[in-house]
Known about the structure:
The protein is an alpha/beta fold. 39% of the residues lie in helices and 14% in strands.
Amino acid sequence: xxxxxxxxxxxxxxxxxxxxxxxxxxxxxxxxxxxxxxxxxxxxxxxxxxxxxxxxxxxxxxxxxxxxxxxxxxxxxxxxxxxxxxxxxxxxxxxxxxxxxxxxxxxxxxxxxxxxxxxxxxxxxxxxxxxxxxxxxxxxxxxxxxxxxxxxxxxxxxxxxxxxxxxxxxxxxxxxxxxxxxxxxxxxxxxxxxxxxxxxxxxxxxxxxxxxxxxxxxxxxxxxxxxxxxxxxxxxxxxxxxxxxxxxxxxxxxxxxxxxxxxxxxxxxxxxxxxxxxxxxxxxxxxxxxxxxxxxxxxxxxxxxxxxxxxxxxxxxxxxxxxxxxxxxxxxxxxxxxxxxxxxxxxxxxxxxxxxxxxxxxxxxxxxxxxxxxxxxxxxxxxxxxxxxxx
Length: 391
């Protein structure tokens, strides 16, 4: 488990980051022109869209495992050229399953040589071998790799069912233990958390997730609230951004998320208390109080908020395309044809950012992990008749 002061340090670091970011976002709102700094503060890179699992809640499931992956994945030489020297300082790794890419550690070494750092890797944890664990530990000790987030969605049987592979839980658990063992030999703490997506299936299994975290000596559970949008919200968003192809919206589209909005708050409160008693923290995103979750899970409820993700973070997919954001996958540039600096403030990018400032958030953004929701007008929210959902 982490040292007692680690939680305090984490909170202090987050507070400083929020203060700095508030100053930056206020400047962006004052200008209102949709123009960002000359380069993103960080990039989220999908080194591959291949995945060895078939998760039934995955928001990118329809675009995983493309047929042309082998010819289109960015090579080390291309990555070297695209990122140049001394531009973007931080990047995050997601996918697909990042470790399906055989030369992932070579990519890390390349970026480390450019003075970059990796703030986090999101992985299902099933394909981390001994040599990779050694490499990750070395990168962490050098200050390059900051965090590894391993997906665990419930006790073994449930996890295997939703991940679409028997034995997936055991592989992930064994590899968390492997990482911890390898890191211990280097006398460094393994920066590992568990990442869980809340669904109708595991709402009442959150305490089981906490139990699994305790067994694995993990003191932080990152809980993703289920991300979804209704068909109506998709149509409204397409009209705002000037698109006709609904395929650019990659979040889960449904009239009914399968969760009783009234059931979520008390269950989550109980799970948080249960975790705290064991010295484990549950953090969820998007950030909001447990009371507000009833509004969050009510379909078509017109939640308000803001999102500055596209002003700070670039989303680069496996083939060098740059997308507006993870859930509105509008192509705004191609790094095989343009520099990152050219793409970053290209006309379509700036136009979409400006529209985002005008609307605060788009309708499909209401249930996204990147958004900052605003519940200040609670009276207006309670006057909205909720759409019928099943328990």
